Amino acid sequence: MTGIYIHVPFCARRCPYCDFYSVPYRADTAEQYTRAVCRNIVSLSGQGISADTVYFGGGTPSLLTGEQTGRIIKAVQNYVQLHDPEITLEANPVTLTDRKLYELRQAGVNRLSVGVQTADNDQLSFLGRLHDFPRAGKAVRDAAAAGFDNISCDLMLGVKGQDIPSLDRTLEQLLSLPVTHLSAYMLQIEEGTPFDCDAVRRETAGEELMAELYLHLCGVMRAAGWEHYEISSWASPGFRSRHNMKYWTLTPYIGIGAGAYSDFGGARYSCPRDIEAFISAETQPCVYDDPPDRAEEYVMLSLRLSDGLDLARLREYPGGEMYARAAEKQAPAMIEHGLMIPTAAGFVLTDEGFLKSNAVIAGLLV
Ligand code: SF4
């Protein structure tokens, strides 16, 4: 079944490490944007689309009012066949007031992804975040009290001042919260951002420390009984992100909003990162990518998952036989180096393999 992604490109303040497309929040623009999103959802009507996930990503989707979020969900319910949906909204902790949480529940949101990042207040201020950890912890506990039983937290690795004991303290705090899912990201210095300077490079984790932090995180989460189901994602049993799984299993999704990507009807396309153009168009403009090589994509995406690569499935894609043979040829060396493990159907990466996934996947594709 299809996933519906709604991109909400507003932020209260830009974080100095981020290069995502977003504009400063303004109430009037957010209202025009909401109307444009709804118009685009209406345009999906009559296509027989069945969906089981809706994901509000950003930017900061929790800057929309509860009423605006509800209007968008209502439009999806009216114009797309929605079945037992997982409806996720990414939220900044400072936006999650009791009233907002109540309105989001009423609107049908049943999963929150909260940008906690770290439990260390110095690290949060280094990241330019608007919240401290007590505020983030309160937001998560308030969300649970408001009826959210599926809450994900984001964690940032490699921040200034983060070492193994500091990461342990953060994990202890995070795991004591009512959360079901964790997404961990390695801090990248993106070109052109305020973090793109030597001083920040010196202060943040280099390759060696980043690897230690990641492997340590893998160990702690395993010991805590969480499923490491994707390179950067951990879930308590039964709480994988159903929407994100669509990206990694080549399942169709429709993205709506300025900067949103779609993979639908066999084509990959995106709406330009131009909020004015999105708001003023009757239906969003689309820019089509070159036809994707699905077999190659399957190799790259399946190896992000703990489910791993299935050679029989790879062979079903056009050109898949060539990649399957290359993978079978290269695999023994990867297995010997502890980067991969053979499975009944194919291969799966180890923690070390996840860490070096770019090199491993490139090696398998030659
Ligand atoms: S990290 Fe999130 S909140 Fe910060 S600027 Fe980027 S999209 Fe906005």
Written account of the structure:
The protein is an alpha/beta fold and 366 residues long. It folds into two domains: 2-248, TIM Barrel; 294-364, Arc Repressor Mutant, subunit A (Orthogonal Bundle), CATH 1.10.10. The protein is 42% helix and 22% strand. It has helices at 27-42, 66-79, 98-107, 121-126, 133-145, 164-175, 198-203, 207-223, 242-248, 275-280, 294-302, 311-316, 320-336, 351-355, 357-364; strands spanning 2-8, 10-11, 23-24, 50-58, 81-91, 111-117, 151-157, 181-186, 227-230, 233-235, 253-256, 261-264, 267-270, 287-288, 309-310, 340-342, 346-349. The strands form four sheets. A nine-stranded mixed sheet has the order 9-10-8-7-6-5-4-1-11, sandwiched between helices. A three-stranded antiparallel sheet has the order 12-13-14, with no helix packed on it. A three-stranded antiparallel sheet has the order 15-17-16. α1 (27-42) packs parallel to α2, α2 packs parallel to α3 and α6 (164-175) packs parallel to α8. It starts with a strand and ends with a helix. The model has no long low-confidence stretch (mean pLDDT 96).
Short description:
This protein has helices at residues 27-42, 66-79, 98-107, 121-126, 133-145, 164-175, 198-203, 207-223, 242-248, 275-280, 294-302, 311-316, 320-336, 351-355, 357-364, and strands at 2-8, 10-11, 23-24, 50-58, 81-91, 111-117, 151-157, 181-186, 227-230, 233-235, 253-256, 261-264, 267-270, 287-288, 309-310, 340-342, 346-349. The chain has 366 residues and is α/β, with parallel strands linked by helices. Strands 9-10-8-7-6-5-4-1-11 form a nine-stranded mixed beta sheet, with helices on both faces.
